[in-house]
């Protein structure tokens, strides 16, 4: 089995039941290559994970009819299976041969505890989903515009003052903490949001989780792509992307893990 992907919005792991190609097989999979079944493992609170991590290699590609494996050692994806969403680099000048982002787009602010903020854009209909898959604690819908190009222009202008990305370690450091309300309101005072939202991920943390790459334990919950697990009397925060590509077997981890760092001060 191999961990081949994750769903940060609905909290799940994608587990392939197939094996990597043999060493003499072509590294790059083809459209007519055999596919393996993919299981969706929901990461609902209380779920028990019992995976032992083995070797790690390219996660291949998940397609409509299953998973096409790849044995390239690059992780989580080799160059043949690394895809870059060109729209993420857009600042208002379309990078595609033909612009196709004609849906209504929302420009938003997101807050991550305690006081990290970012600006972003997404299709209006998936605004709440986008905030959740990033693990935002708060969100503010600033405005809706008629297409992605205009939204990216606005985002690029705001990004001179407000970051347009937040790294996972910053999000991990905020687990169990609350948003600095004064700082958030000060930021919003420069705008007139159409609406604001707050999210509760139900993690109920009373100690600081340890950063680990492990897939054994009882799921406490997820916050974006951070999976929070209880195992052996300690609590761990796992970046789901760091699990992608690992071959796994049942039986739980056999590694010695660092204990929790203690209660919050």
Automatic annotation (TrEMBL):
It holds the Pfam family DUF2797. It comes from Haloplanus rallus. This is DUF2797 domain-containing protein.
């Amino acid at each position: 089995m191999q961990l081949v992907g994750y769903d940060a919005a609905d909290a799940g792991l994608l587990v392939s039941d197939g094996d990597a190609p043999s060493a003499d097989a072509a590294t790059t999979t083809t459209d007519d290559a055999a596919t393996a079944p993919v299981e969706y493992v929901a990461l609902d609170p209380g779920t028990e994970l019992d995976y032992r991590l083995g070797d790690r290699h390219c996660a291949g590609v998940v397609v409509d009819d299953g998973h096409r494996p790849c044995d390239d050692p690059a992780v989580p994806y080799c160059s043949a299976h690394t895809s870059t969403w060109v729209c993420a680099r857009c600042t208002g000048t379309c990078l595609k041969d033909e612009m196709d982002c004609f849906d209504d787009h929302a420009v938003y602010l997101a807050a991550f505890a305690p006081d990290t903020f970012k600006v972003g854009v997404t299709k209006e209909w998936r605004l709440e989903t986008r905030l959740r898959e990033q693990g935002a604690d708060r969100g503010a819908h600033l405005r809706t515009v008629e297409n992605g190009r205009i939204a990216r222009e606005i985002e690029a202008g705001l990004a001179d003052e407000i970051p347009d990305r937040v790294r996972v370690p910053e999000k991990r450091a905020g687990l169990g903490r609350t948003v600095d309300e004064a700082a958030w309101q000060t930021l919003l005072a420069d705008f007139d949001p159409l609406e604001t939202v707050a999210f509760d991920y139900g993690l109920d943390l009373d100690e600081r989780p340890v950063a680990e790459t492990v897939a054994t334990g009882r799921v406490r919950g997820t916050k974006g792509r951070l999976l929070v697990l209880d195992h052996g009397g300690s609590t761990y925060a796992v970046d789901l992307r760091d699990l992608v590509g690992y071959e796994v077997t049942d039986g739980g981890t056999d590694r010695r893990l660092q204990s929790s760092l203690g209660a919050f001060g």
